[in-house]
Amino acid sequence: MKIAIVYNRESQAVINLFGTLNREKYGLETIKNIKDALVSGGHQVKTFEGDKNIISKLEEFMPSVVSGERPGLVFNLSYGIQGKGRYMHVPGILEMLGIPYVGSGPETHALALDKVVTKMILIQRGLPTPKFMVMDKPDSPVTEDLTYPLIVKPKDEAVSFGLRIVHNEDELRDGVKTIYETFNGPTLVEEYIEGREVNVGLLGNNPVEALPPVELVFGEGEQIFTYEDKKNKSGRTVEKVCPAPLSEEETKKIQQLAIDTFNALGCYDSARVDFRIDKQGNPYILEVNSMASLGADGSFVYAADKMGLNYTDLMNRLIDITNERYFGPFFLDNTDGETPKEPLEIFNSITQNRHKIETDLKSWTNLSSWTQDPVGLSTVRRRLDDRCKKLGLRAVEEYTNGRSAWTWESKAGFKDGTLLVLPIDIPGERKGFPIPFRTEQEWIYGEGIASSRGGLTVMLTALNALKEQKLLAKKKVGVLFYSDEGRGMRYSSSTLRKAASEAKQVIVLQPGFTEGKVADQRRGSKKYSITVEGDPLRVGGKNSKQADVLSSFLLKTEKLKEISSRDKKLTIAVQDVHSERYSVLLPHRVTATIVVTYINEKLAEEAEKEIRETFKSSSGGMKSYVETIEERPPLLRRKNNEVISQLRQISEEWHLPFGTESSLLASAAGEVQADIPVVCGFAPASKGLYTPNEAIHRSELIQRSLLLSLFLLEQ
Question: Which residue from 715, 566, 553 is spatially nearest to 646, judged by alpha carbons?
């Protein structure tokens, strides 16, 4: 894949140069070593200065449309050019551009670079760190009762700049003065922990792995690791010992503290935590290096080598870790050379075209098709018809009602094959402005992106991958899409039942659940329209003791809620309530929607009887009307579901997440006959479903597309 190494050395290409200039730089030899390591790993690598020209350079090197290649990646070595927030500059730009990169995000760098904020977070998490205070200026008061000797260092500098030990107040104020004049910033003052200094490197994400601890042995002189030591200007040699001579219990403790610190600051991919261990064996966290040095003589590289990762392996491992974080474990080449050509080609076709897939998803979210928007629905349907034709599918008039359900099939037909079912409407009606399409590291947001567009894109991506291999025409595949999900499939359900009866198995592309879970059980639902009418009463009138319509309705609904039972998987809920009244009078008419969700049909029937009995007209003058407006059957777990067994097997083979879950929401899967294997929730996992914050899990967009295509390949 294309990898851009971004660093800061000589360039000062900014609009203005002022403020705190960067003092940290990677050596040219280290940059070359990293590049050589990545090239030997089979990557296409270029190096770039992290200045104002970085955007245009990256656009040229890794354009947004990656022509058949895996997405590009930035290996971030940039400490920034200037300013207190310099660590954050390049990661922030990369996030804005949507380019994956190695290392922590800007927010983590901001926390780690500010040593005081880091210590406050550690204290909040109950993690041990030396007592401290902050002195803004040399004449600032001493606010804490700290025990000498003390350590002074700049509040937000790295590489041990300005670090020194002080033994009394005169030395303290002299040290603060030096830091103030040199760095024009506050000084962190903390108690010096007499004892040993140990570093723990961290590698990975979920889970993160702690490397063997490295002890720094200073020999003569002050027992701290100064800037001069790091730059070999102190005249002494600091020896590194790895693994540090600690007991097994001490090693596990300090490694766990390092992992807890890594997680507390939200680090990614790699970091290093520095400790002091006092004479009683108690560890104290000094600071976190969110950009652990990758120099050949650094503690991080030294520890990795001791655990069997040479320099080349370590650099390429960082690339693999980053790819796993952004794209999931399936992104890595998980074949052993014996994988058949066709599935491997499909794998590459999907995983190497993430940008194209997300662009296609965006184009669908830009088309409005709410349930009550016939113009928008017609637009989406025509476009989907066109895509089906391009895939080589043909329309099946027998299973198309021309109003709310349309069916297409491959040249081989879908009889005794797989029927894919998905909605094209976004349930409800638009209120307010469209939801803008936007991507985050883990989630993609957009209008109808979970309720409709995610599953639609998964289906098209999977079928297109098969077509590229000239396999789609040979597979028995059907596609049925419908436009009345928001109406409970009132008009399309009979068409679906008819089409499903011809298929061997059915997959419904409704939103799934995180960790790759699909729905093997869904509740059914029944929806009722309730109208209660009575006399218009005055507030505080002669008949004030007479119950008004609204109060009577509320009392009755509270009684109904008592029927709900989590154990019985039965719920009765009021969804909408509207009242009508004259001027200052109390309401004389209430209309409401009551929904019942259930697994057991008998319990649902009993609940309906209770609803009708509760709202029957009374002799007191009130009249009630109950009308069933929607019925959706439940999806019950089916024994020996062959589809789930096959999907699980494919998922294990390709290291894709997969599992099953029960859902409270009814879906099209309930319309499928009991003797036909069916899986629901095959679209990407969602959050904020049916809300303005609707989103799908970004990795699952690719994972689901890959799983569906590999499943269809085996049919």
Answer: 715
